[in-house]
Design goal:
One of its GO terms (molecular function) is adenylate cyclase activity. The protein is of the alpha+beta class. The protein folds into three domains: 140 residues, Tumour Suppressor Smad4, CATH 2.60.200; 183 residues, Beta-Lactamase; 274 residues, Alpha-Beta Plaits (2-Layer Sandwich), CATH 3.30.70. 32% of the residues lie in helices and 27% in strands. It contains 16 helices and 29 strands. Strand 9 and strand 10 form a beta hairpin. The two termini are 70 Å apart.
Length: 662
């Protein structure tokens, strides 16, 4: 009978571990995103995180995998099962398939079955040997009814002694365990066929103890020194860091602990340190027949980073502890195994530092959640077409104010204003694209999926406008009174657009490209057209333009109740199609609904060429004190009066308003 869930393909002779899920004792199929189908057992070939569904990051439902750049994630519960952490287990197989490390990164301890295996405590790491999992699979109990089973398969790879690789810890462990058997140092547990599990467990315990320490923690190097002494029965061990600029060795940790300081002549063998620096190989005290025994035996091994020596482990012991005074090869290997742990830890620290720098850079443009997603999944930045919302924001009155402030204070003013505006973008999950002079450009809908991106953009725009009073107050003692208050003009548009990297090999940036962006820019520029060129008329009334204009496509995408009014249809430079625009109000007062209803009624009359009726309706607006400064009302009145007085000016595209400025 055909098996709908075949076992993942395993190369002949290979060894490894598979993972399966049981709920209430029943095995569940797992959707493997790499295979594109369901399997009953997931072949663990790389690091994988197990945890609860994270809806905010777009995780799929339970029992499905997601592949990121350097790891995978398996969703084991739905988002509402909060007793399971979003990141619960961190499982990493070694490259040779001989061992498997399971780290508990969740909030609760994890019992195991059979009960003799014990529990994995919070932040604890447990190492399993593949050959033992073949005979005795282990179940990790997560929650009341969920179990993760780890089963070994295949035959473990033979332990060879290849050319030394500084960061191949699993091979180093196998090497030293084999040497222990050959040199009969296994405390009676060695077997003719290979190293015993007791040997491996002892070495892995030391390895895990070092690897579990962060390279940035103060006890990282001291832990390494301590484990060297315990593994090889050394009297003392030090980690020496190499100051590349001063070309000096400095003791950063010693076990048993002593005061650290600069390395000087007789304390450490300078010839040994010179040897490992020049040859990048381990040095140990030579033994010459017939000569007097040395006072101590020493093993010094270099710690490398990108083929450069950055430090050394320096271990020493008194002679005679092994019957003869010959340093056993496996003792040298003990030091090298821990050295490899240091190398891996330092490499990991460097990657973490680089990732932190990258995260800082990403955080300058993307909201935190999206920045984290990009770190794990760089495909989010690949070129593709998305439905997005773009926002352009410009400071009204910038030119005159910058002339009054001077260049130095203008830069400070810009930093403060654009900083507050940018905070509004990030707070509402937007992406900061760029600053052009006093203009800010932002977008929503990419790189991560945001179904309500029109809402988010409009909320950010309203938030920006509501910050104006405070910003004007902060600068009231530096900007001349006659130039206050400064304002904002914002244009928002929604549509399909290509997003991705743009630019050249010399300089590139990520963002959208296409008509959707151009229209948003033109709409922002059109805000000032909805206000008379003479902002103050003969009666002394001051008129203000709409602060936020949104297109019809954005208005239709807004699902929440926001105060908008239809202003009309316009045609802007270099955009062939007419655009229906709406005002989005951030300061809607009690008279807003009356203003909106009367204005939209007047516009319909204007559209039908009933100019006199339109003027009468607009007069109703002018009688309301709060509405007397409304720029769009004044502009529509001027247009209606002009066409009433001179009907020959009515064009074929009426009532479309042809704007000749960007």
């Amino acid at each position: 009978m055909h098996n709908p869930y075949p076992r993942p393909h395993e190369p002949q002779g290979s060894a490894g571990v598979s993972l399966s899920i049981f709920v209430d004792g029943h095995q569940q199929p797992i959707f493997d995103d790499q295979l594109g189908r369901e399997v009953l057992e997931l072949n663990l070939k790389q690091r994988i995180i197990l945890g609860r569904q994270d809806v905010a990051k777009g995780d799929p439902g339970p029992f499905r995998t997601i592949t990121f750049t350097d790891h995978r994630k398996l969703i084991i519960t739905s988002f509402h099962q909060r007793e399971v952490s979003r990141r619960s287990l961190d499982i990493s197989p070694d490259a040779a398939g001989n061992y498997l490390r399971v780290g508990n990164i969740g909030n609760h301890e994890v019992p195991m079955s059979p009960a003799s295996e014990g529990r994995i405590a919070h932040q604890q790491v447990r190492t399993f040997v593949t050959s033992e999992l073949i005979q005795n699979p282990v179940r990790l109990m997560i929650g009341d009814n969920l179990a993760i089973q780890l089963s070994g398969f295949g035959a473990p790879a033979e332990h060879h002694l290849p050319e030394h690789s500084p960061t191949n810890i699993s091979q180093s462990v196998a090497d030293v365990a084999m040497m222990m058997r050959q040199s009969r140092m296994a405390d009676g547990y060695a077997t003719p066929s290979g190293p015993s599990s007791a040997d491996v467990e002892r070495i892995l315990g030391a390895v895990s103890d070092v690897l579990e320490k962060a390279a940035s923690s103060p006890d990282f190097f001291s832990s390494a020194a301590e484990n060297v002494c315990k593994l090889g029965n050394f009297d003392s061990c030090s980690y020496l860091g190499l100051d590349q600029l001063a070309n000096q060795w400095q003791c950063e940790a010693t076990w048993p602990s002593t005061d650290s300081g600069e390395i000087e002549g007789p304390i450490y063998d300078s010839q040994a340190l010179e040897y490992i620096w020049s040859n990048r190989q381990t040095w140990s005290t030579p033994v010459v027949d017939g000569e007097e025994r040395p006072k101590e035996r020493v093993v010094v091994t270099p710690v490398l980073s990108h083929d450069s020596v950055v430090g050394a482990l320096y271990a020493s012991k008194r002679p005679g502890l092994l019957g003869d005074d010959t340093m056993a090869d496996c003792e040298v290997k003990f030091v090298e195994v821990i050295r490899d742990c240091l190398t891996v830890g330092l490499e990991r620290l460097k990657k973490e530092q680089e990732a932190a720098k990258q995260q800082v850079c990403l955080a300058q443009f993307f909201p935190p959640g999206i920045a984290d997603r990009i770190l794990y999944d760089e495909t989010l930045l690949e070129t593709r077409e998305e439905n997005i919302t773009v926002l352009f924001c410009d400071i009204r009155g910038f030119s005159t104010i910058s002339s009054a402030l001077g260049s130095v204070q203008t830069l400070q003013w810009l930093r403060e204003v654009l900083g507050e505006l940018s905070e509004s973008v990030i707070r509402h999950d937007g992406v900061l694209l760029e600053y052009v002079g006093d203009e800010l450009v932002a977008m929503w809908g990419a790189p991560d999926y945001q179904p309500e991106h029109p809402n988010l953009a409009c909320q950010a725009a309203i938030d920006m406008i509501r910050k104006l009073d405070q910003l004007n107050q902060l600068w009231s003692d530096r900007i001349p009174d006659e130039l206050l208050p400064f304002g904002l003009t914002i244009g928002i548009n929604t549509g399909d657009c290509v997003v991705g990297k743009k630019g050249t090999d010399y300089k590139y940036m990520w963002g959208p490209l296409g008509p959707t962006v151009n229209i948003a820019s033109r709409i922002q520029g059109a805000t000032k057209q909805f206000c008379p060129k003479q902002e103050r008329d003969e009666s002394g009334t001051i008129y203000y333009p709409p602060e936020i204009l949104i297109t019809e496509s954005t208005r239709l995408g807004v699902t929440t109740n926001m105060p908008t009014r239809f202003l009309g249809t316009i045609k802007v430079v270099n955009i062939p199609e007419p655009i229906r625009v709406h005002e989005l109000s951030a300061r809607a007062s009690g008279s807003w609904n009356q203003l909106r209803q009367n204005y939209e009624a007047a516009y319909r009359q204007f559209e039908e060429r009933n100019f006199l009726e339109a003027l009468n309706t607009l007069d109703v607006i002018s009688k309301v004190e709060e509405c007397q400064s409304d720029g769009p009302t004044k502009c529509l009145r001027d247009r209606a009066l002009t066409l009433l007085q001179n009907p020959k000016l009515i064009g074929k595209e009426h009532p479309v308003w042809m704007l000749d400025q960007k």
